[in-house]
Automatic annotation (TrEMBL):
Highest rank taxon of the organism: Eukaryota
Keywords: mRNA processing, mRNA splicing, Nucleus, Repeat
Entry-linked SUPFAM superfamilies: TPR-like
InterPro entries listed in its UniProt record: HAT (IPR003107), HAT_PRP39_C (IPR059164), TPR-like_helical_dom_sf (IPR011990)
Name this polypeptide is given: Suppressor of forked domain-containing protein
Signal peptide: none
Annotated family: Belongs to the PRP39 family.
Organism in which the protein naturally occurs: Brassica campestris
SMART domains attached to this UniProt entry: HAT
Residue ranges, compositional bias (Basic and acidic residues): 276-285, 616-629
Length: 750
């Protein structure tokens, strides 16, 4: 067997020890087999899956990176495209354009083609169509060993793709004449994707090959294995199996083990018959070997009872598989895109994956759980929530090797640029006692992934405080504040100061230190609605006396238009802040301070009520039925006019402060639901990929929607009612929608 044949049979860089392919949730040593791979006969393991190893090392495809090859002069267009992808390696359209340009002008330069494919597939290892194109380029120049190497890297990069295994098996059939080599590759493939609902194309090719070899016992065994699993076209497979059983002798269909079992059963039956009849000459006939021809005749017969029993065993497997198929068919038919693409999935399909995972987890078959998660993470590779769910699921089942493997793949390959996964990794590592790993995750966020992310700063400082490192916790804030000071008009800086001040007071209970931080902030930041709101809230948690004389001019400067000072707050934000301050004074101020604030509010905002709004309120009052008014109970008291009725532009409760508006990273935007269903013929999806199943360059990368901050109630103060202004008669009470229940002001981080 040549070197390339050995690689096909045993796998690329198969250095891992042989493990069992059947997974038991109680045996962690066996868990590696499902991800790292083994065939039913062993020796087929691979050391990594989906482009990553299980140990925490940077992951790249073999040969990846921007290495300059000999004779690789670039055209101006190639230079332009390379500069784009070097600046942003996730720019999918630029990558596909670069591949097309390279193939167009350098079709015979295999070095340049290898360079661009290696670099692209290091970033997008799940694009099985491009692995196929890469292998075709190597085959075109006659480098068969390189073709095998590419396919082996492909089945590591997208292990749970039926298509890439099918392409690999077709290549092996067309290249090698050794049936054992080809069968070994088929067996490796069905270990990973043989239970995939859409695995019919692979099984069909396996059946076709064994039919060409006329190895009927192997063919019958393949049908038996298929009938054990709820896959597509199960009825067709059962009918084909029955046709095979009815047209070939059972002696050709039975495996060696089955033939031995039949022979043993036949011996036992004859022995029992001999003892019951008590015939003396029976022993003689057996000694003379006269019974041997009858055994052979039985083994090669097509006795209807034997045939019925043989088919019945498989039919029982088929019925059981069909029962399970009836439970999952709804989930499977809702999966319209089982392959990877950078385009976002629609919301319905994302929810379907969650529901499908819920069902399989409740079913309790650990093997099925792992396989479904791996299928899901092909289609949903760009969504951190599914990686987080996988890690938590494996951790709760005690399979820490699979949990670590999934977390490494997520943080180093598939969602490595999304802060959410690194925040999760930091929390998980802290929980597992890996404090150095948690700090490394936070440092990666601060330095590369999302510098200045408020949530990362807060959670990092909180972790250091939990560990008893108070000085380190303060240092986290101070370092980020120092960086933000150097930026012009930093949006994050006022929020950092406000949070740092509050954190200092809650940890040290030092009100003077906390106020000192706020005073320093006023020298470096332009006051905003959110900053002032946080400052007002901060005064509520400090011990008396409240610094109302200090707050009032700050609030007035922000809510009062002044051409001499830069005021970026909108009219709505200024009005909301005024109402927040009035409510604060209602709790902690005196009569004079309340009167001053309310008079100022009326002067600034009440004259700007729109006439159309006042006319509408008057019309609503006029149209109110006198009969309806008289029908009310005599002792019913008209509800007090809320301040939001006096000032219609104001919300009923204080709007959320800065903690409710953390900096958010881009989330994949859901695509609109497609009217047509996903074509169940998984093997026919090539049209969506082009000639090789690749992705057209015209597809745009997913655009992240702008996060919409959720308003949180200013939970420290219950909504207060104020009398309406006396400039107009009160309208009949208008029914207001139920106010949202108060939420903790800083509930996101504590």
């Amino acid at each position: 067997m040549g070197e390339s044949q050995a690689m096909v049979a045993e796998g690329y860089n198969a250095s891992a020890a042989t493990v069992e392919s059947n997974i038991d949730s109680s045996q962690s040593v066996a868990n590696v087999s499902l991800v790292n791979g083994t065939g039913p006969e062993g020796g087929l393991t691979t050391s990594a899956e989906n482009g990553t190893a299980t140990d925490n090392v940077p992951v790249t495809a073999p040969g990846a990176g921007h290495v300059e090859y000999a004779g690789s002069a670039l055209s101006p267009e190639e230079e332009r495209l390379w500069s784009i992808v070097r600046a942003n390696s996730s720019e999918f359209n630029a990558w596909t354009a670069l591949i097309e340009e390279t193939e167009r002008i350098s079709q015979d330069n295999i070095s340049k083609i290898r360079k661009v494919y290696d670099a692209f597939l290091a970033e997008f290892p799940l694009c099985y169509g491009y692995w196929k194109k890469y292998a075709d380029h190597e085959a075109r120049v006659g480098a068969m060993d390189k073709v095998v190497e590419v396919y082996e890297r492909a089945v590591q990069g997208v292990t749970y793709s039926v298509d890439i295994w099918l392409h690999y098996c077709v290549f092996a059939i067309n290249t090698y004449g050794d049936p054992d080599t080809i069968r070994s590759l088929f067996e490796r493939a069905v270990v990973y994707v043989g239970t995939d609902f859409l695995s019919s194309p692979l099984w069909d090719k396996y059946i076709e090959y064994e039919h060409m070899q006329q190895d009927w016992s192997r063919l019958a065994m393949i049908y038996t294995r298929i009938l054990e699993n709820p896959i597509q076209n199960l009825d067709r497979y059962f009918n084909n199996f029955k046709e095979l059983a009815e047209t070939r002798p059972l002696s050709e269909l039975r495996s060696a083990e089955e033939s031995a079992t039949v022979a043993v059963a036949s011996d036992a039956s004859e022995t029992a018959l001999s003892e019951s009849d008590g015939k003396a000459d029976e022993g003689k006939s057996q000694a003379d070997g006269t019974s041997e021809p009858s055994k052979l005749e039985s083994a090669g017969s097509t006795d209807p009872e034997e045939l019925k029993k043989y088919i019945g065993i498989r039919e029982a497997l088929y019925i059981k598989a069909k029962e399970f198929e009836s439970k999952i068919i709804g989930f499977e038919m809702a999966i319209r895109r089982p392959y990877f693409h950078v385009r976002p999935l629609n919301v319905a399909e994302l929810e379907n994956w969650h529901n499908y995972l819920d069902f399989i987890e409740n079913d309790g078959d650990f093997n099925k759980v792992v396989k479904l998660y791996e299928r899901c993470l092909v289609a949903c590779a760009n969504y951190p929530e599914y990686w987080i769910r996988y890690v938590l699921s494996m951790g709760s089942s005690g399979s820490m090797d699979l949990a670590d493997n999934a977390l490494t793949r997520a943080t180093q390959v598939f969602v490595k640029k999304q802060p959410e996964i690194h925040l999760f990794a930091a929390r998980l590592k802290e929980q597992n006692g890996d404090i150095a790993g948690a700090r490394a995750a936070f440092q990666l966020l601060h330095s590369e992934i999302s510098p200045g992310l408020l949530e990362a700063v807060i959670k990092h400082a909180n972790m250091e405080q939990r560990l008893g490192n108070v000085d380190d916790a303060f240092s986290v804030y101070e370092q980020v504040i120092a960086v933000e000071k150097g930026k012009e008009n930093s949006i994050l800086l006022p929020l950092l100061y406000a949070q740092y001040s509050r954190f200092s007071y809650l940890v040290l209970r030092d009100a003077e230190k906390a106020r000192k931080i706020i005073v320093e902030a006023l020298d470096h930041v332009q006051p905003s609605k959110h900053f002032m709101e946080a400052l007002i809230f901060f005064e509520t948690i400090l011990p008396p006396p409240r610094k109302i004389e200090y707050l009032d001019p700050l609030v007035e400067n922000l809510i009062k238009p002044n051409v001499d000072t830069q005021n970026t707050a909108s009219s709505t934000e200024r009005e909301e802040l005024s109402l927040i301050y009035i409510e604060f004074l209602g709790l902690f101020g005196d009569v004079e301070s309340i009167k001053k604030a309310e008079d100022r509010h009326c002067k600034l905002f009440l004259p700007h009520r729109s006439r159309s709004e006042l006319k509408k309120r008057s019309a609503d009052e006029f149209l109110s039925s006198d009969r309806t008014k008289l029908a009310k109970p005599y002792n019913e008291t008209a509800p007090a006019q809320p301040v939001s009725n006096a000032y219609p532009n104001a919300p009923a409760q204080w709007s959320g402060g800065y903690a409710a508006q953390p900096q958010a990273w881009p989330q994949p935007q859901a695509a609109p639901a497609q009217p047509q269903q996903w074509n169940p013929a998984y093997g026919q999806q090539q049209a969506a990929y082009g000639a090789y199943g690749g992705y057209p360059a015209g597809y745009a990368a997913p655009q992240a929607p702008t996060p919409v901050p959720q308003a949180a109630a200013y939970g420290a103060y219950p909504p207060q009612a104020y009398p309406a202004a006396a400039t107009a008669p009160l309208a009949a009470p208008v029914q207001q929608p139920a106010a949202a229940p108060p939420q903790a002001y800083y509930n996101t981080y504590y």
